[in-house]
Automatic annotation (TrEMBL):
Localization annotation: Cell inner membrane; Cell membrane
Chief localization: membrane
Domain MotA/TolQ/ExbB proton channel span(s) in chain numbering: 84-211
Domain of life: Bacteria
GO cellular component, one term: plasma membrane
InterPro entries assigned: ExbB/TolQ_transport (IPR050790), MotA_ExbB_proton_chnl (IPR002898), Tol-Pal_TolQ (IPR014163)
Record's keyword annotation contains Ubl conjugation: no
The protein's assembly and partners: The Tol-Pal system is composed of five core proteins: the inner membrane proteins TolA, TolQ and TolR, the periplasmic protein TolB and the outer membrane protein Pal. They form a network linking the inner and outer membranes and the peptidoglycan layer.
This protein's name: Tol-Pal system protein TolQ
Annotated keywords: Cell cycle, Cell division, Cell inner membrane, Cell membrane, Membrane, Transmembrane, Transmembrane helix
Function: Part of the Tol-Pal system, which plays a role in outer membrane invagination during cell division and is important for maintaining outer membrane integrity.
Any Pfam family: MotA_ExbB
Family indicated by similarity: Belongs to the ExbB/TolQ family.
Length: 236
């Protein structure tokens, strides 16, 4: 209990500049923890949605039925995420282009892939949301804390210059106040850096899975487009 009170005293007795630095670091730490938890929940949701959609997609169900099911859920206010978003973008464009008799199979596939690439960019933006803030907190917080430390030590030595007795007890409180700012900077930076590295790796995993699905789905669409054009030629 005494250590907590002494630490609180150090914060309260620090100069206004050092207190402002500490307040900034506390705010950055609280905000980064909020975003860490928020991103963690989002990645769990995205992973669950991806696994559920993969099971439904490879179960052999009709693609039109799968698209219709997603449309019904979207109409009910459900947000379509990740892999299913790519599927819906590609299948919608494929269905639109396949109705045009002048389009060949390659053109249909290219249009579907272009729509999926646009959807992929949107999904990457969703996955990387708030990660830049975590990177900024992780890279700048130690320097902000160091600024508070340097300022506090300068303030302490200025007080020492005007003191009649230059003892360790005279400068120790001021230096301790300054070092608290460094500790707070590290406290804000370390979780942000760890979360940023972990989440960046998870983004790469999601993007690789999406790329693989896009290639597999493109092959399936090409076979369907080729078969459709053959039937149209036979009917003509």
């Amino acid at each position: 209990m005494e250590e907590q009170l002494s630490l609180l005293d150090l914060v309260l007795e620090a100069s206004l500049t050092v207190q402002a630095v500490m307040a900034m670091l506390v705010l950055a730490s609280i905000t980064s923890w909020f975003m860490i938890v928020k991103r963690g929940l989002y990645f769990q949701r995205a992973k669950s949605a991806m696994l559920d959609f993969e099971d439904a997609f490879w179960s052999g169900s009709d693609l039109s039925s799968l698209y219709k099911d997603g449309s019904e859920r979207a109409a009910n206010g459900e947000l379509i995420l990740g892999m299913e978003s790519l599927f819906r973008a590609g299948f919608k464009e494929f269905s639109r282009l396949a109705q045009q008799p002048e389009m060949d199979a390659d053109a249909i596939l290219e249009g579907a892939r272009r729509a999926m690439r646009v959807a992929m960019l949107r999904e990457e933006e969703r996955l990387e949301q708030n990660l830049s803030f975590l990177a900024s907190v992780g890279s700048t917080s130690p320097y902000i804390g160091l600024f508070g430390t340097v300022w506090g030590i300068m303030h302490s030595f200025r007080g020492l210059a005007s003191s009649s007795q230059a003892t360790l007890a005279t400068v120790a409180p001021g230096i301790s106040e300054a070092l608290v700012a460094t500790a707070m900077g590290l406290f804000a930076a370390i979780p942000a850096v760890l979360a940023y590295n972990r989440y960046t790796a998870r983004v790469d995993v999601f993007v690789n899975r999406y790329d693989t699905f896009m290639d597999e789905f493109s092959g399936l669409l090409y076979r369907q487009a080729y078969a459709l054009k053959q039937r149209q030629q036979e009917q003509a």
